[in-house]
Specification:
The structure holds two protein chains of two kinds.
Chain A (H helix, E strand, L loop, with lengths): L4 E12 L5 H16 L8 E5 L11 H9 L5 E5 L5 H14 L5 E8 L17 H7 L4 H16 L3 H15 L13 H6 L2 E3 L2 E2 L8 E9 L1 H6 L7 E6 L30 H13 L8 E4 L4 H10 L8 H6 L16 H5 L3 H16 L13 E7 L5 E7 L1
Helix pairs in contact in A: 1-2, 3-13, 6-10
Chain B lengths: L5 E3 L14 E5 L5 E2 L17 E5 L3 E10 L16 E8 L4 E7 L13 E11 L4 E9 L3
Parallel strand pairs in B: 1-9, 7-9
Antiparallel strand pairs in B: 2-3, 2-4, 5-6, 5-8, 6-7, 8-9
The chains are: A alpha/beta, B mainly beta.
The complex binds zinc ion.
Organism (chain B): Candidatus Seongchinamella marina
InterPro entries (chain B): ChsH2_C, ChsH2_Znr, NA-bd_OB-fold, Thioester_dehydratase-like
Protein name (chain B): Zn-ribbon domain-containing OB-fold protein
Chain lengths: 395, 144
């Protein structure tokens, strides 16, 4: 039995710093996805929301929030929270519902309004909270990205110019994306002139946080066939696997890794094991992939992901970049949406935004950003505590 | 700094000696180490032990990677005025087979560090309160 589902429609509210309620972005994205799918709202029997967690914020119950905003019509709801992987988990919930035969059509939606200023933990003396501990000791989000980047430089010989080249590449293509927040091309000189944040990463190497919303209308293959969309792009795999003990890379928000001292325990990095299930489930290999949307929380992290997805051997992503092979027109274009570099992160929407981009690419509707003859795309993102998601879309 | 007494920034995470140790736990059944201390349940998936020994972790290791903080972090971090950027190291402990983060000592920049470099654990002030000087662990390049 096939475990594929069809993507009938995709929609996004443009990313930005709009300052409106997040529900507004989710509704706009959902309505665009419904119109794109040609499916009436009343036919949607399951609303799966990617949630955001804010104190007292209704983003906690995203599924019901969006179902109410679009007009109660009796659909069942689900809410998923997995930090940046929330969207993929919401998509997985919809897939399960469809494959179980409990509904034909589902809406998957995520949206966020980013609070002003730093995302800081609650105060007091709370050493049992790893987030409190790391901020108290001076370890912020960019610290982790800086550590990974500096290790690439010392171990693989990556350079500051390589990292800047990722930003230049993503900003060049993202400047053509009407849904991106930052639509300006940057030069390597501009990246080098931006302020140092977490050595070796500068302000322009690190992604911002944004407001935005993304939505998908997904269905059983039978339903897609019935409404004349049998050739719609399909979700071929969703991997939300956790690491295998002992996780070897220190991950936000922890101060230490697992220990691999026990007999029979090997150190693993979750990012490289995450795509294995996706490839296995889709029955394809990295050589079949035409394009990838990866979580460039920093420029250097894009290079890590390229290797983790096995699109380049370990340590050789920078060589692929230098050859122009990760740019549009290259062997394996990466982040032709512009990536987080051009969007900024809207946490519960971002994993869905990646799938939206692949959907338009596989339908040949990406305009100036179109990857020629794209048939298979893969996403990768990460949540907290070293887990994330990888989704494969094919047509 | 003043002549106030020294106190650990976080109670029970490290000893207060001149040559300090981080304090972790070790599973009595499988030998996995944990930092910070884990006394509740072993996280090795093939081990269901709930018995742990409190242990002092190795106070030397090798740099896994390093970075710095060029901007003042938000609270609960307590910054000096004016803010002084500081360096951060992730250090691999051989015996424990784990990596532990911490600031590098004052006066050390990223240009002074390299992946694989040997380092040792020391204590330095994190910040001062009305009553005492809060000390924390930091990594210092090992004497040659
Ligand atoms: Zn154990």
């Amino acid at each position: 039995m096939s475990n594929e589902i069809a993507i009938l429609g995709a929609g996004m509210h443009p990313w930005g710093k709009w300052g409106h309620n997040f529900v507004q972005y989710g509704v706009a994205a959902a309505r665009e996805a419904l119109a794109d799918a040609g499916v009436p709202w009343q036919d949607v029997k399951f609303v799966s929301g990617g949630a955001t967690v804010r104190c007292g914020y209704p983003g906690y119950v995203a599924g019901a929030t969006f179902a109410q905003a679009l007009g109660w019509q009796g659909a069942e709801v689900n809410t998923s929270y997995a930090a940046c992987a929330s969207g993929s988990q919401a998509l997985a919930a919809a897939r399960n519902k469809i494959l179980a035969g409990e509904c034909d059509v589902a809406l998957v939606v995520g949206a966020d309004t980013t609070p002003k200023g730093f995302l800081a933990p609650a105060g007091g003396y709370r050493p049992e909270d790893p987030d409190w501990v790391r901020f108290y000791l001076g370890v912020t989000n960019p610290t982790y990205f800086g550590l990974y980047a500096r290790r690439r430089m010392d171990v693989y010989g990556d350079t500051l110019e390589d990292f800047a080249a990722v930003k230049v590449k993503n900003s060049a293509i993202g400047s053509k994306n009407p849904r991106a927040r930052y639509r300006k091309s940057f030069t390597a000189e501009e990246v080098a002139a931006s302020a140092m944040v977490a050595d070796p990463l500068r302000l322009m190497d690190i992604c911002a946080t944004s407001d935005g919303g993304a939505a998908l209308i997904v269905s059983s293959l039978e339903y897609a066939e019935k409404i004349g969309k049998g050739d719609a792009p399909r979700v071929a795999a969703i991997s939300t696997t956790t690491p295998t003990f002992a996780s070897s890379v220190v991950e936000m928000p922890d101060m230490a890794t697992d220990s691999a001292a026990a007999a029979g325990v090997e150190a693993h990095a979750f990012r490289s094991t995450l795509p294995l299930k996706a490839y296995e489930e889709a029955g394809i290999g990295p050589e079949d992939v035409d394009l990838a949307e990866v979580y460039d929380l920093s420029t250097a992290l894009e290079l890590d992901w390229i290797e983790d997805l096995r699109l380049a051997p370990r340590g050789e992503a920078a060589a692929l970049l230098r050859a122009g092979d990760t740019a549009i027109g290259g062997k394996i274009p990466v982040n032709v949406s512009g990536g987080l570099a051009c969007f900024g992160e809207a946490v519960p929407a971002q994993a869905l935004a990646q799938v939206c981009e692949l959907t338009w690419q596989l339908r040949g509707e990406a305009g100036d950003r179109q990857v020629k003859d794209a048939k298979v795309g893969i996403t990768a993102n990460q949540g907290l505590f070293g887990h994330g998601s990888s989704v494969i879309i094919k047509r | 700094m003043s002549d106030k007494p020294m106190a650990p920034a976080i109670d029970g995470w490290h000893t207060m000696e001149v040559k300090p140790h981080l304090i972790g736990t070790r599973c009595k059944a499988c030998g996995s180490y944990f930092f910070p201390k884990n006394n509740d349940y072993c996280r090795n998936p093939v081990c269901d032990s709930t018995d742990f020994d409190e242990v002092e972790l190795s106070r030397t290791g090798n740099i896994w990677s390093y970075t710095n903080a060029s901007y003042k972090p938000p609270a609960p971090f307590v910054a000096a005025e004016p803010f002084e950027p500081y360096t951060i190291a992730a250090v691999q402990l051989e015996k424990e087979q784990m990596v532990i983060l911490g600031q590098a000592i004052q006066g050390i920049g990223c240009e002074d560090l390299k992946v694989g470099m040997p380092v040792e654990l020391v204590l330095e002030p994190l910040h001062e309160t009305d009553d005492d000087i809060k000390m924390t662990w930091k990594w210092k390049p090992a004497a040659q």
